[in-house]
Structures are given as structure tokens and as C-alpha cells.
Design brief:
The protein is built from 13 helices and two strands. The chain has about 325 residues and is mainly α. The protein has a two-stranded antiparallel sheet with strand order 1-2. A hairpin with a 4-residue loop joins strand 1 (about 250) and strand 2 (about 255-260). The longest helix is centred in the middle third of the chain and has 29 residues, at about 145-175. It is globular and about 70 Å long. The N and C termini lie far apart (about 45 Å). Bound molecules: benzoyl coenzyme A.
Length: about 325
């Protein structure tokens, strides 16, 4: 069969909403685009453990500590599903992780900001996981089967994460003057970086056209960002807090909130590795990989021993 015929069958499946599975024929560019996106998503989950992990020993109560520990462990689980989904596309986990450590692969810009107070843990849950859910609910309908299925489970856990974050802020927002200020300050610092999570404007999005055609993406960066603003602008009222955007305004005509322009210079600066915590994050991941070397070797040796034993039996 010619490549043109194979491409026609492939696009036909996509158009008919049939999932593409690892052993199906797929264009090399589709495979590469998925390796890029899914591995970057995996890296985001793993690097995303760091800002929150920073507060595990300082959580204000045993209950808060247990919840935060569970959440951070969930993120590790998400990273592992996604590394496995990436492996089904024909790359090894080592290659993928090397790309993170060498700085070749990206991860979400949001995790390069510091967590300065306990309220940041609430803001991450509410805003960062809130943004992630909108993006990931869309990805449950992505065209590559293993990625779509991983997203179903991940979204269930993310919705718990978002609620726990909102609840942290709700408690602070009804607390002392200092707690209220801490809550507002965290919202102020996390709002714009959360909007950046959705990526550049559609007009600047290099992968937009092709990813929509292949149904890797089902909604554009700007569409998802607008959904997020509309949702959060209402939820912030429950907290009796404000979003740090003087241009945020409900528009009856469009049925959406208008909002101000993102500082794109800051966004690209962070993406290129020059954000407040980029170096620290990568160093922490490289160190964790080195420190875990003996575990990987021991697991490999044990698996080898079992193989030899089962062959001998
Ligand atoms: N940060 O053409 P575009 C979580 C890059 S973790 C950095 O629009 P695309 C959590 C983009 O990669 C969940 N880079 O790209 C964990 C591309 O560069 P490359 C994280 C960004 O792929 C722990 C270039 O800009 N979620 O929930 O069509 C604790 C042009 O962009 C960013 C995911 O990873 C960014 N924000 O669309 C708490 C979702 N934005 O690759 C919570 C999966 C863009 O050509 N990913 N870039 O070098 C996606 O859905 C899509 O990849 C994006 C970007 C919407 C992010």
C-alpha cells in the first residue's frame, strides 16, 4: 500500500473519531508531535511535584500534610502513566528523561515560579489544577488512544486537587486579616502565570493547525484560556477576593469576560529557561535521577534474577 493510501486511512480514522493505537500505522510527524507533547506533559507532572513538595514538611496540620502528600503522589502517578504512554510511541523512558535533563524538552512554564506561603498551595490547586483540568478534559478526546485513556483517570484526580486548593483558600479567606492578605497575595502572584499555561495566542501557536487536524488538540489555546477566565472570574467571588486584572469585565454581548493582555515577554523568558526557578527545578530533577540510580540497578538485577530462575524451572 502506498504512503498516500496509508495517510488516507489514517486521516479517515481520525475524522471518524476512531482512536489511533500504538501498533497502527501513523505519519512520522504525528508520532513525533505526540512524543513531544505527551513527554512534555509527563515532565510537567514530575517537575510540578517540586513547588508543592516544598510545603509537605510545613503544612499547617497533620490533615493538610496527609492531603498534600496524597496530591503530590498523584502527580507522580500521572507522570508515570504519561511516560508509559510516550513509550508506546517507540521512545525509551531514558531518552525522554535525558531530554528533560539536558534542557531539550520543555515542561509547563507554571512550575518555574516559587511557592512562598501556604496560600500558594491553595492557589496552585485552584488555579493551576483548574487550568490543567480544562486542558486535560479536552485531551480525554485526543486521537491517540493511550493518551486519551490516561487523561480520563488523571482528570478524576485533578478535580479532587482543584477542590482541595479552593478549600484551602476558602478557609484562609474567612480567617484573620493576615490570612486574608496571604490569600489575596497568592492569587495575585499565580493568576497571570496560570493564564500562560494555555500557551501562546492561537496566531502564534506553531502546532495549532496540524494538531487540530489530527485531533491531538480539540480546542485552541485561546478558547481554553477564555473558558478558564469565565470559570475563575465567578469562583473568585465566592472567596470574596479579586483577580489582579483591571481590564477583567463581563461582556453581555459575547457572554464572556474580557481580560487584559498577558506579559508574553515574561512567558517566553520562562519557557526559554530564565524564569525564577528554572535552574533550581532542573537541578532537583537531575539530582533525583542520580540518587535513584542504585534503585534502578537493584530493580534491574532483581528482574534479571527472576528471569533466570523462571527459565531454570
Ligand atoms: N509552558 O504551538 P503551541 C499539572 C510551548 S501538569 C512551556 O501552542 P502546543 C500539575 C510548546 O510546547 C499538566 N512551554 O504548542 C502538575 C511549543 O514548543 P515546542 C500540564 C509551552 O503543544 C503538578 C511552543 O510553546 N499540562 O496539571 O500545540 C502539580 C508553541 O506552543 C507552554 C500539559 O502539559 C507552556 N505553558 O500547545 C499541579 C498539557 N505553552 O514543544 C498540576 C499537555 C506552549 O514546539 N500539553 N509552550 O518546543 C498541551 O496541551 C499543549 O502542549 C499546550 C501547548 C496547550 C501546553
Amino acid at each position: 500500500m502506498s504512503v498516500q493510501d496509508l495517510e488516507k486511512i489514517f486521516q479517515g480514522k481520525i475524522d471518524d473519531e476512531i482512536k489511533i493505537e500504538p501498533k497502527d500505522w501513523m505519519p512520522e510527524k504525528y508520532r513525533q508531535s505526540l512524543i513531544r507533547q505527551v513527554s512534555q506533559h509527563a515532565h510537567s507532572e514530575i517537575v510540578g511535584m517540586l513547588p508543592e513538595g516544598n510545603w509537605i514538611t510545613r503544612a499547617p496540620s497533620l490533615k493538610r500534610k496527609a492531603i498534600l502528600l496524597a496530591k503530590v503522589q498523584d502527580e507522580a502517578g500521572h507522570g508515570l502513566y504519561l511516560y508509559s504512554a510516550t513509550e508506546t510511541l517507540g521512545v525509551t523512558r531514558e531518552q525522554t528523561i535525558n531530554d528533560l535533563h539536558s534542557g531539550k524538552a520543555k515542561y509547563s512554564s507554571i512550575f518555574n515560579y516559587p511557592t512562598l506561603t501556604w496560600a500558594d498551595i491553595g492557589a496552585i490547586g485552584w488555579l493551576v489544577d483548574g487550568a490543567a483540568i480544562l486542558n486535560q478534559v479536552m485531551l480525554t478526546r485526543t486521537s491517540f488512544g493511550p493518551y486519551a485513556r490516561a487523561m480520563v483517570r488523571i482528570c478524576k484526580e485533578e478535580s479532587f486537587h482543584q477542590r482541595q486548593g479552593f478549600e484551602i483558600l476558602l478557609v484562609l479567606s474567612t480567617g484573620s486579616k493576615e490570612q486574608k492578605e496571604m490569600c489575596q497575595d497568592a492569587i495575585n502572584r499565580w493568576w497571570w502565570p496560570s493564564l500562560m499555561m494555555f500557551g501562546p495566542h492561537d496566531s502564534e501557536s506553531t502546532h495549532f493547525d496540524q494538531s487540530m487536524k489530527w485531533k491531538i488538540k480539540r480546542k485552541s489555546n485561546d478558547e481554553l484560556r477564555q473558558n478558564f477566565v469565565d470559570m475563575i472570574a465567578e469562583q473568585v467571588k465566592v472567596l470574596r477576593m479579586t483577580l489582579p486584572d483591571p481590564e477583567l469585565k463581563w461582556k453581555e454581548k459575547t457572554g464572556h469576560y474580557d481580560f487584559g493582555e498577558i506579559n508574553w515577554e515574561e512567558f517566553w523568558n520562562v519557557v526559554k529557561g530564565n524564569g525564577p526557578c528554572n535552574r533550581q527545578r532542573l537541578e532537583a530533577r537531575r539530582k533525583a535521577w542520580q540518587d535513584g540510580q542504585w534503585v534502578r540497578e537493584a530493580a534491574g538485577a532483581y528482574s534479571e534474577k527472576r528471569k533466570v530462575r523462571s527459565q531454570a524451572a
